[in-house]
Each structure stands twice: as structure tokens, then as C-alpha cells.
Design brief:
The chain has a single domain, classed as MFS general substrate transporter like domains (Growth Hormone, Chain: A, Up-down Bundle), CATH 1.20.1250.20. The protein is built from 15 helices and no strands. Helix 3 crosses helix 5 and helix 4 packs across helix 5.
Length: 388
Amino acid sequence: MRSRPSEIPAAATPLRLILLLTVAHTSFGGARLAISLQALHLQASPMLVGLLMSLIMLVPTFVAVHVGRWVDRAGYRRPTVIALAGIALGAAVAALLPSLPGLALTSLLVGTSFMQAHVAVNNAIGHIAGAAGRTRAFGLMAVGFSLSALAGPMIAGAAIDLVGYRWAFALLAVLPLAAGWLLRDAPAMPQPERPAQAGSQGVLDLLRLPPLRAVLLVSAMVSAGWDLFTFLVPLHGAQSGLSATAIGVVAGAFGVGSATVRVALPWIMRRVPEWRLIGAALVLSGLGYFLFPFCVTVGTMLPLALVLGLVLGCGQPVVMSLLHVTAPAERTGEAVGLRAAITSLGQTVLPLAFGAFGTALGMLPLFWAAAALLGCGGGFAATRRRLH
């Protein structure tokens, strides 16, 4: 017998699941950096690096919604086990096949598998926490993501410099296997009752909901700001002559900033409306991207990366909380999957497009294009604030 949403304990906080997703994201973030750095080591052009980065989210673009529906029907445990095994396999492929084709296969496996883990566990966290505990739970999850955004690149960068690419990927393959241990004694996810006609509903039914549609659009902007950092900074750092460890430290500063602001986010959200907060974050991150190409040393990149982490770190917890509020209770997995599909599309198209333009035009126009994109997102969020 399925539990109704009202029967879900309001104060529940699924710490095991939050930690599991944090460890999986550490492996994912480290793999992304290691893929781009090894591709550059193999003399790949910025366009080819962009192609490898786009492959990470190519499959999720097409299957994320189906994964969300699967999670709504079957729960989160089996999809999560399969996803963790896929992340480990993807990193192992790069360790065993240190070549551009091997990196392409790693990108596909790691990206698709992490998306599945993210959709499954994220949906479970939202339901287990309940309405009263959801903001705290997503805030803790966001802090975990910030810590993993710090740990993943730093672990990968240091391992590459110390023991080489093969062993760095081997280390990243162990992390998701360790995360699987946390599924032991993890809480069950109460399932809301599904209407009889739910099987006939499609994605367009979700997109017809204006509040959900606005949340999905802003989510894509926040994700773009986050993911462009992981693509542009390794390229800019390598062209500026930084070592893999130094690039990992700069990327880690972004994680420190996002973790710091997310600790204070409950206090901030009590004083600043959601849409105003998201709008300010997008505008300030656009300004940061405008300034970044003028920073060519670790000393100048670190503070700006920290600031970008601070402002972009506000976005994801607010978006995820709004997503669970605006989506139908029995279709939250599908809504999370739809969000993953939309952001994955951006993560597929943007690195490829930016890589092509970077090869032709250099790094400066790329950073300024990112700044313009995020500024437009901030303008949209400001419009939503005026309407509400």
C-alpha cells in the first residue's frame, strides 16, 4: 500500500542519500576535469574538448524523462545501484584506454550514469524530507554538492600530477563503488498515489504549467553558469600555463564559495524572495564571467572563482525546492528528469558551440558570451519577481 504525501514524516532528513550523492558527484566532477585535461594532454583542440564535454550530457538529454518515469514507478534503489556501477565503469574505461575514443566512451558512461543517480536520489530526498523538511534537505544536499565540487577537481588534479592519468581515473572509479555501501539501511521512499489517468500524461502536460515552466527555464540558466565554469576554466587555465593541480585548486575555490553560501542559504532565503535571489545570482555571475579572461594567474583566478561559486551556489537549492512545489506530487520524478533533460541539452550544446567558437575566436568572446547568457537569465528572473 502506497503512502500519501501527508504521511511522509515532515522532519525526516535522508543523510545517507545526501552523502551518497555527494560521493558520486565527487567522482563525476573529478572525471569531468580529468577528461578535459587528458584530452588537452593528447593535443586535442578546444573544439574537440568541447565535443568530449558535450558527450557527457548527450544521452541524458534524451533519456532523463524516461528515467524519471521509471523512478516514479519503481523507486530509487535499483536505478541508483545501476547508476553507481555505470559511473565506476566509465572511469575504469579511461584508466584502461587512455585515448580520445576511450575518453569519449567515458564521457557517455559517466554522464548518463550520474544523471540517473541524480534523478533517482534527488526525487527520493524530496519525498522523504516532506514539505516541512524539504528546504533543509535540499540545502544540505547543495552543501554536499559544493564540497564535492571542491573535492572532485582537487583530487583529480593532484592525482594526475602525482601518479598520472591512469591511476587518477582508477581512483575516481572506486568512489561510486564506496557510495553504494550507503544504500544499506537507507530509508524507503513513500510513494504518493497516482491518478488513474497518469499513464496517459506526457511531458507537454508538465510544460503547460506556467510556474513549473518558469522554474525549468531558470534552472537551465543556473546550470549553464555552473557547467560553463567547469568547461571554460580548464581551457583558460591551461592556456595561461597553470598546472593540473593549480587548475584543480581554482576549480575547488568555486566549490568553497558555493558551499559557504549554501550553509547560510536558509538565513538568506528568509530575508530575500526566491526570484530576487536567483535574478541577482545570474546577473552577478554574468559580471564574473565578463571579468574572468583578464585573470591569468592563480592569485587573480582564485578570488573570482570563489565569488562565482558564492553567487551561483544560491541557485540550485532554490530551483529544486520550487520544482517539488510546482510539479504534481505523483510526477516529481518525471519533473526532475525533465529538468535534467533540459539542462543536459544545454550541457551538450554549449560546450560544443563554445569549443567551436573558442577554436575560431579565442577565449575572450567565450567568456563574454557566457556573461551575456547569464545576464539575460537574470533579466527573466527579475520579470518573474515583478509578476509575483
